[in-house]
């Protein structure tokens, strides 16, 4: 059996610290970082290096945070809980860089540096002397994620250019649209100059042609989007989307290649289709933080243990965040950081609220539930004033109902896929068969033979309910079946307990009550144990497999239908309906 | 039919701006606010008023942001996109308060003020002169959420005290542990003095006895936790949890009451059991931001239109965030802001990636998929080199398989709950019945009569596959059934397309090929349309009802089993297996 979600929920989250600037518009900086960290289910803290007054159109002003206060924030965070990974973004000035470099030396954290130098909107965020100071930070950096302009700046690419004499077309223009070979050299050079354990050179500024990649096939590991393997020849993945067809026509030669280098060796090329979108504000912040999160959450042997999947997951997250973003603001809008999350329809079970599903079911229509468990039939039964003929009619029909109820559990055993569930269902079916003996005994005491009991025609309310349960169980899955039998089990437990309480309060009587055995059976330990197991089972199934909104609506509908049919069943007894 | 999730995803999120301080440890301030906003699926931006160097043990230092820069941030945000709600938290000093008050006057936003004056750890965060300045802000505030010490400070409660002569026990100590009547007066007084549209007086500092509340029953609307109605007498909700039993024994008289006042009138009392927890750092920030989110997301007539549910949902979210939090740091740990989210197991469909589910299914075991759709049987069939007896054996068995495949779709029609689905399934069943005519025609051309065809014994690989499909369909729900028939449909489409491509590349032949009709049928428009509809249907079902991890594993398992059985089916043909 899968571990209960309760224990999963209570596991401490991975702590990711971001050292970066604030973007008031919420799309980049620590805001993007914290949103990404939430998306990956980690815990985010932040040290601010500078504040920007910013929106999707640009950076309007910057407020630098004093270096001492930056250090003070960092000390406050790490003196309390050491993060697994630290993502370092905008560093504002040389003084802050030097202070952070000093602090990081003594920490055994995995550090990812995204050298934020220019905002998406083109604003310079790191002065020249600060770029020099970055060298002091490099020894502490595990993963480094520059884009092409940043890598060119940091490696002084103009010197590297001479190496291209043989391939260059003689032009003196060094623009950012490098070809793949140039990018590979740049990535290696960046790895060499920074000494970072890995460098991921982000290729978003260059468009790479498919043929360039095919030329390198076999030489380097190429990881195409959405696959670790070569899925180029799977037809159904591309043929049935007019969107993709259009994209393929327009952009099949417009690929983005991110290059991963480790210890001077190219490890792989991550290839993605270019997404045409204005919503790219904060892409760099998001990707580097996503790497921190995937690094923290994948199991590792040590800080230098890594795999392709970490980078691939982070890149895929960032791609989907761009692709699923909606326009926001007047300029470059933010990414959709929460695209990986679905809203939980029920809170997780906690000690404080151990039965959120049952609570939802009952409270989603409390008057309906009360009309069932506190029905006049029940009230009169408790007082002993219920006419015997009503009870007689009810108990005969309930005898029929129980047969179908037992069959429903047998169907549950058929639908189960573990021996544990098979046993549980067949146990209940046997238990229900025994429960029918009380009905036989009551009928005998009323002078009704077993033969007469068996021959009693099924009333419409009984058939409506019993056949509904069987049909839901056949039509749906095991949980649907479970839902269709739950309100009877839980409701009779409620009735048993409620009547007991009424007896204590003097509003019902037990001694001398014709229905004493019935009342005792449904408030007895045996039956209540079964109710408790049933509730735990229901909660466990739902916690292990959290329902979507659509699914919760379906399940709640089955519950309400059964509650309504239960209520009609009492009514049948009271009104002697056929 | 429910609207597709694709359109839901692409709806612009509600924009919530937080004007507050930064908490480096991530548990309070804008960090808590942004995490809360993410949890509610809204979009968060932030204006920083001050930075704290802080952890779970306390505030170690504060850096004030110049008032002009606060205004600059606010202007950057609102000049780009007007938020629906603004939550205002720590304001640091009088100058900032006055600047913000001036800006808010011209904005038509819903403003929630949480007067952060003292941190959970006891640090004073607002000087005396700033408290006076708050009066300038009040006219712009819609909802005000002070706790008891804050409300006492802001209303100068000592004056109010004289009103308690009749009820007070003569003690001169004014401590924060007010009784319920005192809290009600305080809430009204706060509403009066601030002029806020509503005041939610947070009662966490006072323990209220159950009897105090019962005395007020009928006088005020009392909303017990997890219910809008009186569910006190539902036994099953409390009896089966030993945790709750313990809590009831220990704390049934330890209730937290939050009081909602609107225009001087008490609207309701929200009652919750006190949660004993150290993880309460940032509770106030979280609750006020949660109110901003519930206010933004509930449908409203206008800014002053409100309902109980907004406050109740925000309080319930905060309670669960405390209850589900795990220890973090050495002092008061943060709340679990993400308890409402579950990780999506598949990215939402986008134009860029329209079939994430199919992509997952195929790529989760690409070698298995290829071993099916590019099986030697298929390769030889395309080249026309497949021995006729192999094809004959295959086509006879496939005739049997199709009968069960049609039955599976009829079972789908039985399991469907819309006329649309019923028609879709019966249409496919008819289509499959027609498809069998090709089999009959091939057999006739091989000299096999229909009678002989019908009498051919079902081979083990055919029975294994066909009966698996029927059993999965019977055992599970409609989606399970859908999964069990999908890999045949999609795989034959793939084979049809792939063979067509092989013909184009000269690696397969059509003219003069004995299997021409077969190849043309499965690459024909009719069949490929059915494949496309099948894929769209699958994606829609999964997007509308996003699968949990457990569910996705089940669905993927069915897919892989069928792919394996399909592969074995070709193998049967090639090896003439009985």
Automatic annotation (TrEMBL), chains A, B:
Keyword tags: Kinase, Transferase
Transferase found in the keyword field: yes
GO cellular component: cytosol
Domain Thiaminase-2/PQQC: 367-574
Pfam families listed in its UniProt record: Phos_pyr_kin, TENA_THI-4
Domain called Pyridoxamine kinase/Phosphomethylpyrimidine kinase: residue spans: 23-212, 235-336
Gene Ontology biological-process annotations: thiamine biosynthetic process
Domain of life: Eukaryota
Gene Ontology MF term list: hydroxymethylpyrimidine kinase activity; phosphomethylpyrimidine kinase activity; thiaminase activity
PANTHER family per the UniProt record, alphabetical: HYDROXYMETHYLPYRIMIDINE_PHOSPHOMETHYLPYRIMIDINE KINASE THI20-RELATED, PHOSPHOMETHYLPYRIMIDINE KINASE
Protein name: Phosphomethylpyrimidine kinase
